[in-house]
Amino acid sequence: MVRGFAPSLDFLPTWSSLRKRLLSYGNSVTGFLKNRAPLDAQILERELRLRQCLWQNAILKDEVTSTNDIAKELVNNQTVEGTFVVANFQSKGRGRQDRTWEAPKNSSIFISIILKPNNQDEIGWIPLLIGLCLFKSLESETRKNIKIKWPNDLVLVESDEVFKFAGILLEKHKEYVIAGVGINFDQELNELPFKNSTSLKAFLQNDLSKESIIAQFISELGARWTEENNAQASPTPSLVREYKTNCLTIGSQIIAQLPGGESFKAEAIDISKTGELIVETTEGLRNLSSADIHLIS
User: Fold this and answer.
1) Rounded to whole angstroms, how far apart are CA atoms 137 and 212?
2) Out of 3.30.930.10, 3.40.630.30, 3.90.650.10, 3.90.550.10, which CATH number does the structure's domain 2-244 have?
């Protein structure tokens, strides 16, 4: 079941809100107007049915502060696991380490899925699972050289250059985990925030369907989540093996920047069962649970 749009009409006449409103109309930062199609509820419902998705309870919103915020409200109202929120525009989208996420209206894919881990004390494997399922779904849709960058960014690789186009934010709420996913879908290069970022259409130059990408991801995640969440021990060896095989970070020389400001060079050598990145420095091995990772080679 796909529920329809509920547009937001709030507006404050400040520069910050004006900029967000311009983005919501579909303008790039350089002022050009691009006509982008919103999500189509009927097409999404059809794509979910075609894939026989375990989770089909989709809630579509036109404009939200963030899809994670809506998912938390749904948890408060006792919404079932597997319900997911998608939106055309976020006015207060956020990423890891409180970074903001802004994009013109209808240019990105925003999804938040409600998950309920059976073991509340062991959830470090969940970012690995979300990243792997997003990787598998996008790889099958695009047939391009896509890789995971620890912990759960997705990047496109071409001629030894790496371009980020998707990220994941996990937030704990009560006994649930909200998995927020953002994918750069239809931005022009001058609309992207960083030089080493891209969008699927800018990079691939072909027609893609937002609805099919969402449905493929939900299909992958629903099936894999059931397997992992009900396993005697998570993550399963197959999850760790698949993640490591497709993680660009493993085996690379890196610069790690920790939240407290510390920065150092290391070699990324492994992933722990709790999702930590194991790196080798001149002083020995370290396990990183949170860091910005910059690839050197």
Assistant:
1) 10
2) 3.30.930.10
Measured CA to CA, the distance from residue 279 to residue 262 in angstroms comes to 15
Whose structure tokens read 């759960």?
152
pLDDT at 98: 59
Which strand (E) or helix (H) includes residue 167? strand 161-173
Read off the pTM. Answer: 0.86
Encoding tokens for residue 131?
């990243």
Q: Are 124 and 235 in contact (CB under 8 A)?
A: no
Residues 157-202 have pLDDT tens digits of: 988 889 999 999 999 999 999 999 999 999 888 888 778 899 998 8
Q: At what angle do helices 126-142 and 237-245 cross, to 10 degrees?
A: 50
Q: Which two tokens stand for residue 66?
A: 């963030």
Phi, psi torsion values for 247, nearest 5 degrees? -95, 115
Nearest C-alpha neighbor of 125 from the set 225, 222, 56: 225
6-14 long-range Cβ contacts below 8 angstroms, 24+ apart = 6/61, 6/62, 7/61, 7/62, 7/63, 8/62, 8/63, 8/64, 8/65, 8/91
Segment (H or E) for 139: helix 126-142
- Does domain 249-295 correspond to CATH entry 2.30.30.100? yes
Q: Where are the domains of the chain?
A: 2-244, 249-295
